Amino acid sequence: MTEPKLGGVLAPLTTPFDSATGDLAPVHLRRNVASLVEQGLDGFVVAGSTGEAALLDPDEQRRLVAWVREVLPDGGWLVAGTGAESTRAAVRLTRAAAEEGADAVLVRPPGYFAAATSPASLADYYRAVADASTVPVLVYNIPKYTHLTVEAGLLRQLAAHPNIVGVKDSAADAKNLAAYRDAVPAWSVLVGSASLFYAALEMGCDGGVLAAACFAGRLCADLQAAYRAGDRARAGRLQERLTPLDKEIVGKLGPAGVKAAMDAVGLYGGPCRAPLAAVPRAVREHVAQLVAA
């Protein structure tokens, strides 16, 4: 039987921290997941950029996967971010995520030595992780944080690997996304920018990992549903509502803005982990006005 292709609207979950202790807050995590499932999302990513992955311990990443797996309905995708600065660490995170029930892993490039990372060494990194993984691997392009761009040509090189099945593109560049779609026609191609969601569907992409879905899940799910039903006009109108939320909250404010927006809609955003700071009160009020509109 052919495995279903990874796609749809996935929310890259924020990581909830207890406001008093700074520890992970699993009760809040489970409640957020349950609420977002009801909004029509197809799945979740844990320990991604929006989830402050760079600030998490390996054991915390493992526990996040397990906690979401416990409450995610059958058929919902669970993807874990497992990229790391060393190939060895990425392999360990990947194996741990698979053991806890992840359906796939999302692997960012190592960024600290980006200037010294060649296309060949990056290809070796992805092949090594994929060789060691018992679940499918998605390549993750997020140059904003890694200071390294995954070129479409590299995806073509990796396309022959049977365990590398897709890519998430968070470059917020329509031309780059189109190049990805052309480079790997058999892969799942997921857009990481909600501002480009309609355009991505027009290109034949398979869905999106959209931080805006953490606080506007229904809007993202409805846009996808309208597009797939052939109602391009409604999908376009929904995109017009989604774009300012993405640009003003996700694009400008990052995880702290997403958490503020979640608080504003009745979910648990809560604090960020130091040294990442919360948004100031005035900005928080602006975020609340944006999501209310």
Secondary structure class reads alpha/beta
List the helices and strands in order.
Answer: EHEHEHEHEHHEHEHEHHH
Helix count, DSSP H or I runs of 4 or more residues: 11
Give the biggest beta sheet.
8 strands, parallel, barrel
Overall pLDDT: 97
* Silhouette: globular
CATH superfamily: Aldolase class I
Uncertain runs: none
CATH architectural category: Alpha-Beta Barrel
Portion in helices: 40-55%
Q: Which percent band covers the strand fraction?
A: 5-15%
- The total number of structural domains is 1
CATH-assigned fold name: TIM Barrel
First and last CA, distance: 45 Å
- How many DSSP-defined strands? 8
Spatial strand order of the main sheet: 1-2-3-4-5-6-7-8
Q: What's the CATH first level?
A: Alpha Beta
Alpha-carbon Rg, integer: 18 Å
Give the quaternary arrangement of the chains. Answer: single chain
